[in-house]
């Protein structure tokens, strides 16, 4: 059994996979402190009355921060930690509480947007080409894949941290285009946005960052996920207008696609990531 953990800025989603199926999921508020986050993993995964911890072979975790070497967190502000090996920390936590688990339990991590990208290319069977994935949720994250595999670029691609100019000030793209930033400015947006002014403003905000990323990555398609990813459907033509200079430069058209199962796509990415490690 593989347990996937999608650690978000606001919510953390747990999913249990068996025989290629998501058999169970649970959602919690994301703890702000690292020790509380480790407690949440211990209590949810290893003290579940319905599932024997010894049946769990993989713990695959999506982290909203910078990771390396499949277990090391360089920085993750959302759970208040940096420069730590989460695999060692989880195992230490379990051993301290004398919790029994599978002897060769594998614990792996990766950036959440990268795993959202991996889940997307596998779900949509994007076996060829260059795919850019953008998640618009509490923050704004980016992942990148080539020919059905995560690119090494994806591991260091922090698109939301692009510095742009907004009202004569230099700010992070995420600060104007994340789901929380849009919510603060416009309130709860409907699934279908009818206000032309709002659609134009969102398209311009998105276009600023895309016109930086597109010449660098030259994607064939862009998939959008996250809780606020739905805005793409209302603004698609306006976004195309904003990125037209990049499309002309690249001499290509680029499809803008909303991921259908935005809520679970990172969980599926965690699952695919674990399978990739197992069959490596």
Could you explain the architecture of this structure?
This protein has 2 domains: 2-114 and 266-278, ATPase, nucleotide binding domain (Nucleotidyltransferase, domain 5, 2-Layer Sandwich), CATH 3.30.420; 124-258, ATPase, nucleotide binding domain (Nucleotidyltransferase, domain 5, 2-Layer Sandwich), CATH 3.30.420.40. 36% of the residues lie in helices and 29% in strands. It has 9 helices and 15 strands. β10 and β11 (149-150) form a beta hairpin. The two termini are 17 Å apart.
- Tally of DSSP β-strands: 15
Largest sheet: 5 strands, mixed
What is the ordering of alpha helices and beta strands? EEEHEEEEHEHEEEEEHHHEHHEH
Oligomer: single chain
- How much of the polypeptide forms β-strand, as a percent range? 25-35%
Structural class: alpha/beta
CATH topology (fold) name of the largest domain: Nucleotidyltransferase, domain 5
Treating each run of at least 4 consecutive H or I residues as one helix, how many helices?
9
For the terminal residues, how far apart are their CA atoms?
A: 17 Å
Round the mean pLDDT to the nearest integer and report it: 93
Spans of at least 5 consecutive residues whose pLDDT stays below 50 are none
Assign the CATH superfamily of the largest domain.
ATPase, nucleotide binding domain
- Percent helix: 25-40%
